[in-house]
Amino acid sequence: MNAIKNKSIAIIFIAAGAMITCAGVVFSSQSSAADDKKAADPKTVRAAKAALTVTTVQPAQTALPIKLAANGSVFAWQEAIIGAEANGLRLVDVRVNVGDRVTKGQVLARFATEQINAEVAQAQASFAEAQANALDAAGNADKARTLQASGALSEQQINQYTTADKTAKARLEAAKAVLAVQQVRLSQTGVHAPDSGVISSRTATVGAVVGSGTELFKIIRGGRLEWRAEVTSAEVAGLKPGTMVNVTAASGVAVAGKVRMLAPTVDSVTRNALVYVDLPATPGILAGMYARGEFDLGTRSVLSLPQQALVLRDGFTYAMRVDGTNKVSQVKLQTGRRAGDAVEIVQGAKAGEQFVASGAAFLADGDTVKVVVSPPTTAK
Fold first, then answer.
1. What is the per-residue pLDDT across 358-367, written as a single tens digit (0 to 9) for each?
2. DSSP strand pairing (311-313 vs 316-322)
């Protein structure tokens, strides 16, 4: 009796479990069908797959400046050497130092004049003596010529007086020349600036006895500097005198220069040519400094995209192109020069194509985006 009762209870439990299982299957089927219906809705599909809301930009023609970068050093335009003209004299006064700006004719240093003054006085005395002898000889010669017709003097005596007159005059000229030399030596006791400029070197020392030709100073004529840029033999063809250059020295000081001339030859070892660029006198730019510059070669119209539209991945530059179905495709670009926000597109994009304007880094190839209608945006 108990066995029959237990068997009835088991059958009841089995029937109840089967009913619960059927109800769960039916509910699951209904839920799955509802989800499938919702997924099949096109609006739902687009909303689920739109990875990002974006605006688009088209490549535009932009006038970019053409620049040629070069390196070089700053030199003095011309450096004059000022030496001693007097020989064996002692320096008693040095009036300038390195960095001083001087004017043409300014006295830079002086030598002792005692010895020269004495020699000038001696030359003046010799000149005065020669002058007196010349006057006496000239008087005797004149008297001899007046007596020539009377026969009081022989022809030989008259010739002697005439010769003495000529000799006295020659000695007078020699004494005059000696005096002039000594006066020149006296003037050379003052060292004068041959041109206006800046003292770049000084070896003159008070008390030193120097020989003729000894270097005392170096001067940068006019204070003018020049930048000697090195460019390749292929690049030099695009340059000409008058081209403007923006030069930045190692000190950070920037200045605008102008090409004065191009070297007539190319270095046979480096295959580089020198370009001479005039620089205005500017504080912070000194001869001997390294400098970098850019030659302004005009402008050229190129296809460009804004910087925000570009993505750098694995060392390459990409942009996300948007097609008619709002799907994006990753496009590899070859870029060139930059000017502000505009980047030159050498290869990979065409005019009229649509690209994601910003946020392209968050997209992958094949993503679908939602394009927001906005005022036309092009690269500037």
1. 888 888 888 8
2. antiparallel
> What's phi and psi for 249, nearest 5 deg?
-80, 170
Query: Is-contact 278 226, C-beta < 8 A?
Result: yes
Taking only the tens place, the pLDDT of each residue in 145-197 is 777 767 677 778 878 888 888 999 999 999 999 999 999 999 989 999 999 99
Q: Which domains does the chain have, with CATH numbers?
A: 50-63+301-371 (2.40.420.20), 69-77+221-299 (2.40.30.170), 86-210 (1.10.287.470)
Which residues are registered as beta bridge partners of 275? Answer: 229, 262
What is the total residue count of the chain? Answer: 380
Residue type, 241: P
Task: Decide if pLDDT at 11 tops 80.
Answer: no
User: Are the beta carbons of 320 and 357 closer than 8 angstroms?
Assistant: no
Measured in whole angstroms, the distance separating CA 380 from the mean position of its chain's CA atoms is 28
**Cα–Cα distance for residue pair 81/214, rounded to 1 Å:** 10
Beta bridge partners of residue 81, listed in sequence order: 218
What sign does the dihedral 248-253-258-262 (CA atoms) show?
A: negative
The verdict on pTM exceeding 0.70 is: no
